[in-house]
Every structure is written in C-alpha cells, then in structure tokens.
Amino acid sequence: MDELRTTLFSSIFSRALQQLLTDALQPGERVLWQGQPDGVARMMMWRALWWIGFPWLLVTGIAISRGWVGQSATPLLMVGITMVAGPFVMWLHDLQTLFAITNRRALIVRTAWGRQTVSATRFEDMDKTLELADTGRGAGHLNFASGRSTRSPDTDYTGRYGFRCVRNPADVGDILERARRRTA
After folding, report:
1. CB of 141 closer than 8 Å to CB of 162
2. Dihedral in degrees, nearest 10, Cα atoms 70, 74, 79, 80
C-alpha cells in the first residue's frame, strides 16, 4: 500500500500544492507541520462499494450477454462503474490535498480537479478541545472546529471540521495544541 502513497501522481500534485501553500502564507507566518490525507485509508473505508460494484458489473454483463436488458444496459453499467471507481476517485482527490499547521492557523490546501482552494482556520476560531476519530490503518480525523457547512469535503455530517483521514491524528493534534498554546 505504501507504493500507492508515493506514486507519480503524488509528486505531480505536490509541486502545485506546495506553491499554493507558499502563496497562502501571510508575512511572518511559518509552517510547523504539513501532511496529506491517507488516501489509501480513505479508499479502504469505502471498499464496501467494491463488494457491491464488482458483482453488479458481473450480473449486468451476464444480463447484457443474454439479451435480458436492452436500452437499460448503459445506466446499469454506469452505476456499477461508479461504484467500482468511487474509492479511486477519492484517493485522487486526497492526493490533491495538503494539510498544514502554521504558527497562526490550520490550513487545508487543495488543487483538486483544477480548482485551487485554501481553507484557513485561525487558532482563536477553533474549538477549545480537539476531537480525534480513529478510522483505522493508523489514520483518523482531527476535528478542530464546529458549526461548519456540511457541504465541505472536510466537514462531517454534524458540522465538525478538520483534517480528514490524516495519518497519526494524535501526533498531529499534539502539534496543533502546542502551536495554539504558544500563541495564547
């Protein structure tokens, strides 16, 4: 799995991510930590789609070959392909994401699908207590703000916002806590 984490895609996306991060820094601001989401861990969280998608495609292929479906073959195939491709699309999205903790704020930098975004949360806008949620495989979510729009890919269904599927979330949380204490 480590080979998936260090792919050609990763190096291609990292240049653009680093440049966007550099451009987003304010004068005197310095990066204390940076890392990417563990795309493989997120992909494995959604692997249930493969358990549905591959049999779906197999049954659809049999139905097409026997002439059981006519014009409905294309939508049936598209549903199966979407289920199989979904975890890979999430992995590619994570390769285009960079998390950073600076001496002033937490940043989520993204160049996904040609759209560059920087989402910053100042320390004073964060919750008093950080929240960790284990997702397995050494990864987890580090939530540091609440009440955010659930439309963000970095927010869960309750509005908790933070680094999604980050490796070693407890260690990253310690770095964030130390940075917040230094500015308090």
Report:
1. yes
2. 80
In this structure, are residues 44 and 129 in contact, taking their beta carbons and an 8 Å threshold?
no
Q: If you search the block for the tokens 């994401």, which residue do you land on?
A: 97
Q: Class of 9-38+97-183 per CATH?
A: mainly beta
Distance CA 156, CA 25 (A): 26
- 101, amino acid identity: I
For 166-180, the pLDDT digits (tens) are 999 999 999 999 999
Global pTM value: 0.81
The helix-helix angle for 8-24 and 73-95 (nearest 10°) equals 60
Which candidate, 60, 56, 59, places its Cα nearest to that of 84?
A: 56
Distance CA 38, CA 142 (A): 13
For the chain, domain boundaries? 9-38+97-183, 45-91
Longest dimension (CA), the chain: 70
- CB within 8 A of 70, min separation 6: which ones? none
Separation between Cα atoms, residue 4 and residue 62, nearest integer Å: 32
Q: What is the DSSP letter of 45?
A: H
